[in-house]
């Protein structure tokens, strides 16, 4: 029998699917806010290290300025049918102070090493506190797959 719409996945399957996407995708939307200038959203390359999302941006970008003032961020993978949203607080690492294993993994994934650039770059590490994942309306209920930094079962 064929189904005509999305089928509700169990939480464990949603978590596996979200982790697979975090491990393989390249781009993530980063939403930040500044108390005086309001919201700001940009896509950035990202690396998932198994515990946190790593990104890199110019140290003078609006994103960098915003997270220094307000570290709470929201991240979103690009697919609007297979939604994965993360929420957490960004930790900032100037390029010269980023842990070498994270910077090397970022370079390996993208073939670009911000530590060798002339400009100043800031690495952002976001360990998620909340992760939501859903495909269509049947999965809206139970879409939280991580709460308070703990994966749900």
UniProtKB/TrEMBL annotation:
One of its GO terms (cellular component) is cytosol. This is Pyridoxamine 5'-phosphate oxidase N-terminal domain-containing protein. Pfam families: PNPOx_N. It comes from Streptomyces pilosus. Residues 21-134 form the Pyridoxamine 5'-phosphate oxidase N-terminal domain. Keywords: Oxidoreductase. The lineage of its organism: Bacteria, Bacillati, Actinomycetota, Actinomycetes, Kitasatosporales. Gene3D superfamilies: Electron Transport, Fmn-binding Protein, Chain A. One of its GO terms (molecular function) is oxidoreductase activity, acting on the CH-CH group of donors. InterPro entries: F420H2_bilvrd_red/Heme_oxyg (IPR052019), Pyridox_Oxase_N (IPR011576), Split_barrel_FMN-bd (IPR012349). It comes from the Bacteria.
